[in-house]
Amino acid sequence: MLNQKNNDNFLGGPQNFEESDIVIFGAPFDSTTSYRPGTRFGPKSMRSEFFGIETYSPYQDLDLADFTIYDAGDLDLCFGDCSYSLKQIEDMASEILAEGKLPFLLGGEHLVTLGNVRASAARYPDLHILHLDAHADLRDDYLGMQLSHACVIRRCHEILGDGRIFQFGIRSGDKSEFEFAKRHTYMNKFNLEGLENTLEGLRGKPVYLTIDLDILDPSVFPGTGTPEPGGLSFHMLLEGIMKITESMNIVACDLNELSPTYDSSGISTMTACKLLREILLSLSAKQL
Amino acid sequence: MLNQKNNDNFLGGPQNFEESDIVIFGAPFDSTTSYRPGTRFGPKSMRSEFFGIETYSPYQDLDLADFTIYDAGDLDLCFGDCSYSLKQIEDMASEILAEGKLPFLLGGEHLVTLGNVRASAARYPDLHILHLDAHADLRDDYLGMQLSHACVIRRCHEILGDGRIFQFGIRSGDKSEFEFAKRHTYMNKFNLEGLENTLEGLRGKPVYLTIDLDILDPSVFPGTGTPEPGGLSFHMLLEGIMKITESMNIVACDLNELSPTYDSSGISTMTACKLLREILLSLSAKQL
Amino acid sequence: MLNQKNNDNFLGGPQNFEESDIVIFGAPFDSTTSYRPGTRFGPKSMRSEFFGIETYSPYQDLDLADFTIYDAGDLDLCFGDCSYSLKQIEDMASEILAEGKLPFLLGGEHLVTLGNVRASAARYPDLHILHLDAHADLRDDYLGMQLSHACVIRRCHEILGDGRIFQFGIRSGDKSEFEFAKRHTYMNKFNLEGLENTLEGLRGKPVYLTIDLDILDPSVFPGTGTPEPGGLSFHMLLEGIMKITESMNIVACDLNELSPTYDSSGISTMTACKLLREILLSLSAKQL
Amino acid sequence: MLNQKNNDNFLGGPQNFEESDIVIFGAPFDSTTSYRPGTRFGPKSMRSEFFGIETYSPYQDLDLADFTIYDAGDLDLCFGDCSYSLKQIEDMASEILAEGKLPFLLGGEHLVTLGNVRASAARYPDLHILHLDAHADLRDDYLGMQLSHACVIRRCHEILGDGRIFQFGIRSGDKSEFEFAKRHTYMNKFNLEGLENTLEGLRGKPVYLTIDLDILDPSVFPGTGTPEPGGLSFHMLLEGIMKITESMNIVACDLNELSPTYDSSGISTMTACKLLREILLSLSAKQL
Amino acid sequence: MLNQKNNDNFLGGPQNFEESDIVIFGAPFDSTTSYRPGTRFGPKSMRSEFFGIETYSPYQDLDLADFTIYDAGDLDLCFGDCSYSLKQIEDMASEILAEGKLPFLLGGEHLVTLGNVRASAARYPDLHILHLDAHADLRDDYLGMQLSHACVIRRCHEILGDGRIFQFGIRSGDKSEFEFAKRHTYMNKFNLEGLENTLEGLRGKPVYLTIDLDILDPSVFPGTGTPEPGGLSFHMLLEGIMKITESMNIVACDLNELSPTYDSSGISTMTACKLLREILLSLSAKQL
Amino acid sequence: MLNQKNNDNFLGGPQNFEESDIVIFGAPFDSTTSYRPGTRFGPKSMRSEFFGIETYSPYQDLDLADFTIYDAGDLDLCFGDCSYSLKQIEDMASEILAEGKLPFLLGGEHLVTLGNVRASAARYPDLHILHLDAHADLRDDYLGMQLSHACVIRRCHEILGDGRIFQFGIRSGDKSEFEFAKRHTYMNKFNLEGLENTLEGLRGKPVYLTIDLDILDPSVFPGTGTPEPGGLSFHMLLEGIMKITESMNIVACDLNELSPTYDSSGISTMTACKLLREILLSLSAKQL
């Protein structure tokens, strides 16, 4: 009469923290979302629907059943207090990193990335960021606020400095953001062209991978706070991510901006789940 | 770094089977639903949203935090095989009853009741049924099938015989069902009038309480497979249920027919959750 | 290998025009709807979902299976040409009336009533109208247009004159409409009070019954073009209609303003279907 | 070629601040919402749909066209910074009060009330609060945060002290809130009983009226962040509000917690608009 | 006063069984659907919306008005009894085949294919299957059940044996299914590459074409039970199907897994209807 | 205390008619829509959500903040009276053209184009039309009506004559429309191939650009009255439009057929807004 079934973690069965190289945790936070809130339901929706996809990947011929991954659940974040929430995320990530494991953060809005990056940069001073997104997220402030989803990569830049951030797929921002990018980051607009060159240059570096799912076309991923027409197909994104995970030394990463309420068909959640499966498999296979 | 949070049981925290007088389990089954399927998502939706209501009831001045209730999770039922699914439900209920505990079943379609009733009648030969529903569920067969949600009370009657089933709120059925009721059950059409008299007569008997949530008006509970206009308000149903739980010897019970897909506002799930809270509190308080 | 099943009429089986006292026809028209269009889908949605309710009524202990009613299907109306559409409705109704049968019109927006009333008044010069609605529909013109859903009862008044129109449930309109009502119609605001007195006075007269389903509270009937909070419950409306059909000489009638697109739960269509069943049964039983 | 039409204020036409006794302003803020965010879209949705109801009220026989009310639009609030947002609300309200006008605030989540109450209490030291709500909102903190929608009346109590706050309709909260209410506020659970006595005692006092629309039953008002089954009907709430506005000296007020995303039928927005119309008419008529 | 209009068959007008080479029938069955049920509404939704597309195809310069196709309507299948439902489908298909006509089955879930294949294999012992799908459907059992949508092609393999089944577009399954495919079927993963070679080899053979519409990308076809990201565009699928219908000897076929409830925009139903039109035109033109 | 914020025009700030070269106005009209109405809400939805995209375009490196564009708001059109509505549109466009400005019309259904074309052809007798659409819109009448969305380009042809209309992307129509096109217009089916040749030939001519947004694939743009599978991607359409606006002498244009009700995700409105931004920027930059 055990209640294993409603142990709603991604892998369904019993978990083993010690043997896991990757630790998933959710940050259900969307307090600074400026357009349409709801990414707080992202991690919960992914856990709830993950059973709807297979554990086996025909793309990689790998099966999650063959790996040990720990799902630490969601943090209890306080809506309306960004600084404290970021601190909670940073503490969790630091703890995971201290155990020599990879913190895999599920947002929530993109601001949550800052907590994970702070912890990662503390442990890996030479950290570089690969940023896949529709939006530049390079504002200095948004409506007077510096801790905002629209400023998150700018805040990361303050930690890492020039030449450490590589942005792909960017198709939206204000003029100042694109000008900032010209001077301080590498930015490839609209798609993933140039990704291979970038990966060549980053080989061997510790890399933080942050994926804002709105890089996908809204037809593929309508369930997000700020849909931006003209994005990537699922195949383009999957191919790009596989190139990254296979060749880079990923030390921490995140997947964010799923807002399931805006997609009554549920395809956005399935897309997030399938990408999660592929990333987990690729990262896990390398550690064998 | 424990993952207590995604232990998505109704009470959130750690569980203790031994100390619990009530054991909740879900039967996510809707294979015989004839109109609109989807009640399979009922228990999952209730677990997922239960955190959205308080644990404290201002109606009863009681708090779930003060009681120990065990949530055994959902059964793994096979879609398309009714007999086997009912057997799984019966086995689970029998096991709970054998421990001297009350099996609280969450449907699923109404057919699941049959498994719980079979187990309960085996343990309590003098079992009586209180049936709150919009539909009579008294057909002998439905499209040639005897194990159907439209036949469930008829099947219960075959177990218990005349004079043991008391139906309230019934406002739909075919002519033969209403004629069957005249001869074999007590039926109060449309509302809960006469409930107090019935309860008077049942005092001291072992009672199975089955609640098809479509007894509520569709305005209050649109998220169900077969909405039937002209039903009860939330207050009317809550008041009736409280009368039952306070005065009856409930030995097993169920709450069924929540189909969350049909209610994008989510109010049906909240209604099911709030009724669950009130029933759990009322039953638990009696056992103190 | 006959294709009886997709003969999507209300009664499912083969039809017999000669033996039918009532002829149903749909007018899928919403060209003058000013707020939210979509009532064109009303009749189609009702035919599609009618199988979801029983043919037997426990309210009246009558079964549609025991009566012969003819469903003539929907008219092919031209969107954007009100005069011609009204003419098509009038012609259909005249043809039905000429056969001594009752034309039962399913809207569409409320303007369609005018076609049916024109035909009925031509045959029954002493026609009176019972009008159940949230809106007065008494404007002389709406944005310069005289053939508008907001003017339909005013147009009927031009045909019938003072003292022939009795309005119930009205809770919305502009000031001029309520002033017009004081001088030219009988109007009972907000509910059905006074209905019995009115029925007393109309006994023996030929009566046209027009029901705008938005007389119901939006909680009960959200699927309508102009929802107006503060309306009737299902029970109140059903009880009022039963009083009317049982005591009045109904010569023609309509049920309109179902707009299923605005109600993803489907409860509005079920409500319209159930009211249709009850009216058909009540009218048919009288003719036995 | 003027663009008066897209001047999307509530009264449609040109505005006159000087002649207006009432000034409406919106606070599109939901950063502390703990369950389902989205009330930020409340004021916008109301402005957008207000044209869908008449300006004339058959309940009061009054017409908005006969009064001058100023709609100042929505504040530009920064998501994620509660203190600063509340300051902006307070400043706006103070400015309106300084002109001898009534600040009519449209939320947003219930926390916005605090800004308006601060300004009102500063101007009217003897301020009393009439609080209509499903939730007690009396927590000291929520997940460690004191500026939360769940704490807003507790914060108001810190300003006003015992005996100044009168709560009606409350049907949800944790145990400590109900205990706090016993000692520090007047609370009537579940409905509006006792309202007349309260009004008797408040006659002549300066009163702040705060209406959390979730006091309504979710069937009537599904479009809200935290739906709570078992609430008031539209008629019950309208009747209660009319008693208040007719007899009290309302110096400031608010209407909050409309979250239109959760109600695809749009009836929640229409309900909020109709209540707004009735309150504006009642308050305006008194000042004639 | 004929009711031709609500004769809701695909071609609208009167039908002629004798002259038709193709007979359409629906199997509204979804009892074994494991993730999200609702394909039972597929055929009904297609019939209801088919009028929304033209009868003329600019792709083929052909018009349905120039051909005679018989729509036999939907079978009355019993939910919850898979064996009997499959028998009903098989009987219907056998009857159509016996008349020398092509049975065109509309699902429902993919399991319905088995009934049509059984009848076709009985008549054409050399039957080959072309299977377009996102899922392999090659499990031996699913949760202990052998008659499941996830096993349907495996069951077909038991009838036809090795070398007779050709699968395209497959991008999901468990590991054992892909291993089974290596030994017993031809499988092309992810897309339609290699289709022309396959068609070359099948020339002249009797071919059963089964199309699970979830082969399409979820952006194009969200209304399905198990959406699988990374699928075909409409153009890719249409082009592939045209190659098949033009060159193959199709003796029976099906189109399945439309679940309209999950797509409130209705584009999935339109996509299914347009593909149906193109297939019907292509098959009909060959028989001229 | 100014209410600038709810001045819901596209550019947010104060407006200057004199300095604007482009004047936007909306025609919220859908009375002749034959399948699914609702495009009346198109302009309102675009104004309401336009703030959700940036004013800066990374595609063109231009910012709307650097240009002066006048938004005249929406016309008050009478539903159900097509001739008068078209006259209102024509008058508005004539007035704008008389000032030497470009009338940018936002539909509404496609019929509204006729009013704008009438005015434009009166001012530019040598007018040519570039027509991007899924549908040919070349019927002589639709259900007997000549002023219908399905006939709008045919009506334009009556004004302009042969050789003046160039149609792209057309993938639906009845046979007669495609035959009419062969004789009287230039039509490129399915996509934008041949656009460059056409533009070459039109260089220097006054061109009217009409964009029916259903030229996009329904996956990209589900929110439209008549979705037609197999359309353009966002990139393909944007690229085509940019070629047109950069090289052609556009004297008037329109963007129509957004029907937001059918897309609960909101991505269709965002797509329309982004295309509007790009067109406005491209046209404005040329006039510098």
UniProtKB/TrEMBL annotation, chains A, B, C, D, E, F:
Signal peptide: none annotated. Coiled coil: none annotated. Its cofactor is Mn(2+). Binds 2 manganese ions per subunit. Mn(2+) binds at residues 110, 133, 135, 137, 212, 214. The keyword Manganese applies. It comes from the Bacteria. GO terms for molecular function: agmatinase activity; metal ion binding. This is Agmatinase. It comes from Parasporobacterium paucivorans DSM 15970.
